[in-house]
Amino acid sequence: MPLPPSELSRMIKTRPLPGAPVVIEADEVERAALAERFGLGAVRSLRAEVSLEAKPRAIRATGSLRADIMQPCAVSGEDFPVTIEEPIDLRFVEEDARSLPEDEDAEIELEADDCDEIGYAGDMFDLGEAVAQTLGLAIDPYAEGPNADAARKAAGIVREGEQEGPLAAMLAALKKD
Q: Which domain of life is it from (predicted)?
């Protein structure tokens, strides 16, 4: 089954590669679609600047991503502003050039660079989708907003190491003696 189209598609021809860095800025429609995809209140801005370099068997993409998002607090659920600044370091490898073992059960030794490898077919690859995935991976799913402690207290949730109530007060008094 084919994948749905990317919300931030930016197709780049493999030959010739752009000489100048590629700047990707998401427009309002793309930002709204990315917010929905990643479960965010909003993506207020998203900009990536990426340099492309031809390598043997691959195209290396390096640069940076900056995004301002409204993320739900993991505790209260309220949206709060978060700025994401993330380096980009990817390798785009043509599907035919990827070396996969013929035996599905065989172990694969991964090099550090292999973990950020993205396959493509034909003479183009989607740099925009790679930027979108970089954003998705940079979002902290357990981020806590400024009202997290108040929400915990209202729900009666006690953090590890914190105690409340009459028993806690008696134990604290005993520790002072």
A: Bacteria
What one-letter code names the amino acid at 28?
Answer: E
* Half-sphere exposure of residue 147: CA atoms within 13 angstroms, side-chain side: 12
**Domain residues of the chain, as ranges?**
11-146, 147-177
User: How many residues comprise the chain?
Assistant: 177
Query: pLDDT digits over 28-57, tens only?
Result: 999 999 999 999 999 999 999 999 998 888
Distance (Å, rounded) from C-alpha 114 to C-alpha 110?
6
Q: Report whether 125 contacts 59 (CB < 8 A).
A: yes
Residue-averaged pLDDT of the chain: 84
Q: Which of helix, strand or coil describes residue 140?
A: coil
Which among 92, 90, 74, 72 is positioned nearest to 82, based on CA atoms? 72
- pLDDT tens digits along 127-161: 999 999 999 999 999 998 888 888 888 877 766 55
